[in-house]
Write a structure and sequence with these properties.
CATH topology: UDP-N-acetylmuramoyl-L-alanine:D-glutamate ligase
Structural class: alpha/beta
CATH superfamily: Ribokinase
Strand content: 15-25%
CATH architecture: 3-Layer(aba) Sandwich
Helix content: 25-40%
Largest sheet: 7 strands, mixed
Distance between the termini: 44 Å
Order of helices and strands: EEEHEHHEHHEEEHHHE
Strand order of the largest sheet: 3-4-5-6-7-8-9
Number of helices: 8
Length: 234
């Protein structure tokens, strides 16, 4: 109900340069007229998941921040895109301050926070300082790190059933699955167990959607996980 078609405007096209299992994505966002929607009381969500958006949409972020501040019970999951990271934490400080879950890869965490690549604890500290209640740093083949301010966990990758075919969407699959698990009532450790499974599945297919799993399929993969597939404190 909140999707609007603009027949006189072009669609966004992102071009993927694919070499072996790795890829680089060339992004072009058109300048759509972004407006934060007005929700009826029966439409109010419990969570909002916010990610990449056009560099021309900064006022939209302010509208969202206004709405979140007026509705403190709603939780925000924030996975900043390129232009949002370039806008800087000062410009988007109201959003960061209202963030329940902030997900960045290790290189992005360094760029956003100004922390040291070699100090994961420091990166998590700085993400919390921005306002995030739960901070997550993904680290490619090294797995992921997460902190809720009380405990810090490191999660390995789920073992691939075959060599990765194409990695587009792996990070998005991890972040969205992690947030979905929290939204369904899972704790930090359980959400960390879910997230790498969808990433594992996505990299077995071309593109970001073909490999996504249902909740039932996630649980089936989790049931046959090796004994070492678990989160550990670090």
């Amino acid at each position: 109900m909140f999707v609007h078609v603009h027949p006189d405007m072009q669609s966004n096209y992102h071009y993927v340069l694919w070499y072996k299992e790795e890829r680089t994505i060339l992004i072009k966002h058109w300048d759509y007229p972004y407006h934060w929607p007005h929700f009826r009381p029966d439409e109010m969500p419990k969570w909002v998941y916010f990610s990449s958006i056009s560099e021309h949409a900064l006022p939209y972020h302010d509208q969202m921040a206004d709405w979140l501040e007026a509705n403190p019970e709603i939780k925000l999951a924030f996975q900043p895109g390129t232009f949002q990271m370039e806008a800087g934490t000062e410009r988007l400080k109201r959003l960061y301050a209202r963030t329940e879950v902030l997900v960045l890869n290790r290189e992005e965490a360094v760029f956003v926070t100004g922390g040291s690549y070699d100090d994961v604890h420091g990166l998590l500290d700085k993400m919390h300082a921005l306002g995030a209640k739960i901070a997550v740093v993904t680290d490619g083949p090294n797995g992921a790190y997460a902190s809720d301010g009380n405990e810090r966990l490191k999660m390995p990758l789920y073992p691939d059933p075959a060599p990765p075919y194409e990695r587009t969407g792996a990070g998005d699959a991890f972040a969205s699955t992690f947030v979905a698990a929290l939204a369904k009532g899972h704790n930090l450790e359980s959400a960390l167990q879910w997230a790498p499974i969808n990433s594992m599945s996505v990299v077995q297919k071309v593109g970001a959607q073909a490999g996504l799993l249902t909740e039932k399929e996630l649980e089936e993969w989790l049931a046959k996980a090796p004994d070492w597939y678990k989160a550990e404190t670090f």
